[in-house]
Specification:
Elements: H1 14-18, H2 30-33, E1 41-44, E2 47-50, H3 51-62, H4 69-74, H5 76-99, H6 106-122, H7 125-130, H8 135-170, E3 176-185, H9 208-226, H10 231-238, E4 245-250, H11 256-264, E5 274-275, E6 279-287, H12 291-318, H13 331-335, H14 338-347
Helix pairs in contact: 3-5, 3-8, 5-8, 6-8, 8-12
Length: 352
């Protein structure tokens, strides 16, 4: 069985700018767990956050690679609120990681320290001094972020594997196959061999005479396949490589007539000629009862529903917070201009 990885990294701030590998597990040290840069703190959703940490979080948000300077200019309030939302999200998940004694290694700590070093070399010290961001604050924030990343990645990975197995069990009675679809198009194609469309978005059809010619070619190709010609040779002979492709699926999804025919086919045999909105086609059966195809199909479904599953769990964590927990009324934060911070970073050439 192939290894399945559902890791979904939450890249933190400057890491996108530096194009570094985000740590997948970072250690928590005793010295940084309770580090605060100033005596004054702000209560955010029940968490006491120092002014220095708040400035650090705002800096990372601006350097996340997800914002442009123009975004801050046009909607400063929304950007400020996104900082608060990220703080709450990180704190809640970090608490979960600590409560469950999440494993971390010395090598993870080394990676974190490298990221911190890169961050500090990217942002000048006088900027940190101006906003009250100390080394202890930087250490604290990166520790929480690395813990959060690893915990979420591990959880998503576990959920993904669980969903994959569930879908595999649901489809245990289905015959998964690989087929090669040989297509003779009855529509016009553009310079990239993609279906051409008119002003209304509809496919541009070939003339009726041209369609009959394509049908005749498809029927001739079917004869050649039955006579032992390989499907590779057939598509090359007719110059239709760009329109033909290998497909995975299961019997029951191809349409009644074709499904019934596939049930009777053996590996290497070809189907009758069928038509679709794209043209005339023939299927060649390459594999059947294919466990790797089933696993891939289950994996695709799992990925599709993974976010919903994960968000359901995450919402349960946040259900205990007050409905207005993301509202910060502290005067320091109300008076703080994240636009001024963004302007400073932009002047230094640090913000996109």
């Amino acid at each position: 069985m192939k290894k399945i990885n559902f890791n979904k990294k939450i890249v933190v701030g400057i890491l996108l700018v530096l194009s570094l590998v985000v740590c997948t597990a970072c250690g928590k040290t005793k010295d940084t767990e309770n580090a605060d840069t100033k005596s004054e703190t702000i209560n955010i959703a029940g968490y006491e956050v120092s002014e220095g940490e708040l400035m650090m979080r705002a800096t990372l948000r601006l350097l996340s690679g997800q914002l442009y300077y123009s975004d801050v200019v046009s909607d400063e309030a929304s950007v400020k609120q996104s900082v608060i939302n990220e703080i709450i999200d990180t704190k809640v998940v970090y608490d979960k990681a600590i409560a469950e004694n999440m494993e971390f290694t010395e090598s993870d700590e080394e990676v974190k320290q490298k990221l911190i070093s890169s961050f500090k070399s990217y942002v000048p010290q006088d900027y940190f001094d101006a906003y009250g961001i100390t080394d202890e604050t930087i250490e604290k924030v990166f520790t929480e972020d690395c813990y959060t990343d690893k915990y979420e990645n591990d959880l998503r990975n576990a959920l993904g594997k669980e969903l994959t197995e569930d879908y595999k069990n649901r489809m245990s009675d289905k015959n998964f196959v690989t087929v090669y679809r040989i297509l003779f198009p009855t529509i016009e194609v553009d310079e990239n061999d993609e279906p051409a469309t008119d002003a209304n978005g509809s496919y541009i059809q070939l003339s009726e005479e041209a369609k009959l010619e394509q049908k005749a070619k498809a029927e001739q190709a079917k004869v050649e396949l039955e006579n032992g010609e390989s499907y590779e040779a057939v598509v090359e002979k007719y110059g239709i490589e760009a329109y033909s492709l290998q497909q995975d699926g299961y019997i029951g999804m191809f349409g009644d007539a074709l499904d019934a025919e596939l049930e009777t086919m053996e590996i290497g045999q070809s189907s009758s000629v069928y038509s679709s909105e794209l043209g005339y086609y023939v299927l060649v059966l390459l594999t059947e009862n294919d466990e790797s195809v089933k696993e891939g199909y289950a994996y695709t479904l799992a990925v599709e529903y993974l976010d919903a599953k994960y968000n359901t769990i995450k919402n349960e964590w946040f259900a205990e917070l007050a409905s207005d927990s993301d509202a910060v009324t502290d005067s320091m934060w109300q008076d703080f201009s994240i636009l001024d911070m963004a302007t400073e970073l932009n002047k230094r050439g640090l913000m996109q």
